[in-house]
């Protein structure tokens, strides 16, 4: 199985920046790759994560983190790495998942800036 990670803001709202091009490229590559690799029993899934509470937020002002967290509908917080890992484990274990992009972002949409 092959999986890739694309920024969540590629789907369904596009916000400018280099990550959008990279993410859109990963998502665009997913279906042709899945078609080409199916004959070998290889599945292709793309994950589009929202904001996760990782080391990148260690030096960020808590007010900024709260503001970013408020973009999530429910739960209104940053994702936990264990939640991302649980999704990846589900992808590995569920052999019917293929040729798709899964979003894990608590319904968050970042505002256009």
Which features would summarize this protein structure in a list?
113 residues; alpha/beta; Rossmann fold; three-stranded parallel sheet; 3 helices; 13% strand; elongated
* Major sheet attributes: 3 strands, parallel
**Given this structure, which CATH class is correct?**
Alpha Beta
Gyration radius, in Å: 15 Å
> How many helices?
3
Strand arrangement in the largest pleated sheet: 1-2-3
CATH topology name: Rossmann fold
Please state the overall shape, judged from the principal axes of the Cα atoms. elongated
Q: Order of SSEs, N→C?
A: EHEHHE
The pLDDT mean sits at 82
Number of strands: 3
CATH architectural arrangement: 3-Layer(aba) Sandwich
Distance between the termini: 36 Å
Question: How much beta, percentage-wise?
Answer: 5-15%
Full CATH superfamily name: NAD(P)-binding Rossmann-like Domain
- Proportion in helices: 25-40%
Unreliable residue stretches? 8-16
Total domain modules: 1
Structural class: alpha/beta
Give a description of the structure.
Helices cover 36% and strands 13% of the residues. It has 113 residues and is α/β, with parallel strands linked by helices. It has a single domain (2-104), classed as NAD(P)-binding Rossmann-like Domain (Rossmann fold, 3-Layer(aba) Sandwich), CATH 3.40.50. Strands 1-2-3 form a 3-stranded parallel β-sheet, sandwiched between helices. Strand 1, helix 1 and strand 2 form a beta-alpha-beta unit. Mean pLDDT is 82; it is low at 8-16.
